[in-house]
Amino acid sequence: MGHSVALNFADGKTFFISVNDDELLLDAAVRQGINLPLDCREGVCGTCQGQCETGIYEQDYVDEDALSERDLAERKMLACQTRVMSNAAFYFDHNSNICNAGDTLKLATTVTAVELVSETTAILHLDASTHKEQLQFLPGQYARLQIPGTPDWRSYSFANRPNHSNQLQFLIRLLPDGVMSNYLRERCEVGQILMMEAPLGSFYLREVERPLVFIAGGTGLSAFLGMLDNIAEQPNTPAVQLFYGVNSEADLCEQQRLQSYAERIPNFSYQPIVTKASSTWTGKTGYIQEHLNRDQLAEQAFDM
Questions:
Q1: Which intervals hold domain FAD-binding FR-type (predicted)?
Q2: Is the pLDDT reported for residue 133 higher than 60?
């Protein structure tokens, strides 16, 4: 049985490989065209060092000169000695091009809907089902989208988790005269083709061991929606606090979806905060930092 493993690099590129139960991580990467730096292949030199960010793994042998006890406690590992026991993600602190790794995936997607939530916020829905395999990305990562009829690309975080039907969602901030913003407001139609490059980015959900505090402003919520979708599918989910700040009530996105997480994630709390609230708004106002419990954050161990 193979495990899906994400290899993340310092240049923000991510490649997914399949690793067999009886296979070393280094061998699996090389087999699939990603030539991780190596020298001794015996767990001594440390050339193939990385860090496990999520997942279960074991190492055959690690020389103390290659990784210290502190390194091991920080889940640093040697690819030439690592055997994965579950789906996992590893980070390597060098650019992917030294591995002769190929480009990230580029494919055509089709617009299925565009919602103009407010003057400053849109939700773009894309269909990538022409790609026959399920798209792989980590919750929180982003894609680059090419604006039709232009050479311009813009980057947006996925607002959902990978799914078999390859239906994708993005929250997009509308600027007064942005290239993508003008396209969404004026020319975007269902059925149009957008080129996409993905997955990209080193901001994604790691191994969850402590309660989480998410702080999202405006369309920055997009990345956290993908993370929450993923957390909701996991057993033994941690407590999650989400602070979501926007300029006006009209900018609030995906309210029903956010409320549904309370039913799917035990100990989930969600606090919308509006900076320029109308007289009818009954929730919290101002800025997110004004509503953080600093004493609680200082006393308890959180991941933010």
A1: 104-206
A2: yes
